[in-house]
TrEMBL record:
InterPro entries: Aldolase_TIM (IPR013785), PRAI_dom (IPR001240), RibuloseP-bd_barrel (IPR011060), TrpF_fam (IPR044643). Its EC number is 5.3.1.24. Pathway: Amino-acid biosynthesis; L-tryptophan biosynthesis; L-tryptophan from chorismate: step 3/5. One of its GO terms (biological process) is L-tryptophan biosynthetic process. This is N-(5'-phosphoribosyl)anthranilate isomerase. The lineage of its organism: Bacteria, Pseudomonadati, Verrucomicrobiota, Methylacidimicrobium. It comes from Methylacidimicrobium cyclopophantes. The keyword Amino-acid biosynthesis applies. It catalyses: N-(5-phospho-beta-D-ribosyl)anthranilate = 1-(2-carboxyphenylamino)-1-deoxy-D-ribulose 5-phosphate. GO terms for molecular function: phosphoribosylanthranilate isomerase activity. Keywords: Amino-acid biosynthesis, Aromatic amino acid biosynthesis, Isomerase, Tryptophan biosynthesis.
Length: 204
């Protein structure tokens, strides 16, 4: 199965179009105010309205309340929710039927054999800002953990056009997710790096 690619930290329609033209499957919008890639829900909604179909639109949040999510839902049409904080299994379960991607950082405190109530897990590296650190995960450790996993997982954390093929070869993820590794500056994508990242993933 071809690996799915998410380009995260989109803050403008121009960058969204670059990622789509490059062949990305999903775009991520950081709705967490502590991030240098923060985009207000109203601004994200304007970008989403201009996007073509068949592109996943992911809202990235850190420890949201249900009412935060309901407010965003009233403004913008996201297709899935990437929860990047300390959200519990019970909280994720309560969000059904929304599609949840739950981000986890090592040390992983879940048993991989027990399905977590989320459409997918996203494995990221530790970060003081919850995400977008550019720090790489220990891929052999990821492999060991995911071998027993019973649901799709997305690899993230410090991926770049230069290392993504090695990361995929070592971990065999359902998808890959990149924010800082394809940027000119936080919140501004580098078109060449976006194209190169997607091209390498899709050439597999
Ligand atoms: O990118 C951010 O600023 C961010 C902030 C808060 C939560 C998640 C965030 N991004 C996610 O972090 C990972 C890894 O990013 P990077 O490629 O290492 O820069 C990725 O899943 C983003 O979706």
């Amino acid at each position: 199965m071809p690996v799915r690619v998410k380009i995260c930290g989109i803050t403008s329609l121009c960058d969204a179009r670059i990622a789509i033209e490059a062949g990305a499957d999903a775009l991520g919008f950081i709705l967490y105010p502590g991030s240098p890639r923060y985009v207000e829900a109203e601004a994200a909604a304007e970008i989403l309205e201009a996007l073509p179909p068949f592109v996943e639109r992911i809202a990235v949040l850190v420890n949201p309340t249900v009412s935060d999510m309901e407010r965003i839902e009233s403004l913008a049409g996201f297709s899935a929710w990437q929860l990047h904080g300390d959200e519990s299994a019970e909280f994720c379960s309560s969000l059904r039927p929304r599609k949840v991607i739950k981000a986890l950082r090592p040390p992983w405190r879940i048993a991989p054999e027990v399905a977590f109530p989320a459409a997918a897990l996203l494995l990221d590296s530790p970060s003081p800002l919850w995400g977008g650190s550019g720090n790489r995960l220990d891929w052999p450790l990821v492999r060991k953990f995911t071998e027993r996993l019973r649901q799709p997982f997305i690899l993230s954390g410090g991926l770049t056009p230069e290392n993504v093929l090695e990361a995929i070869a070592q971990t065999n993820p359902f998808g890959v997710d990149v924010a800082s590794g394809v940027e000119l500056a936080p919140g501004k994508k580098d078109p060449k790096r976006v194209w190169e990242f997607v091209r390498r993933c899709k050439a597999l």
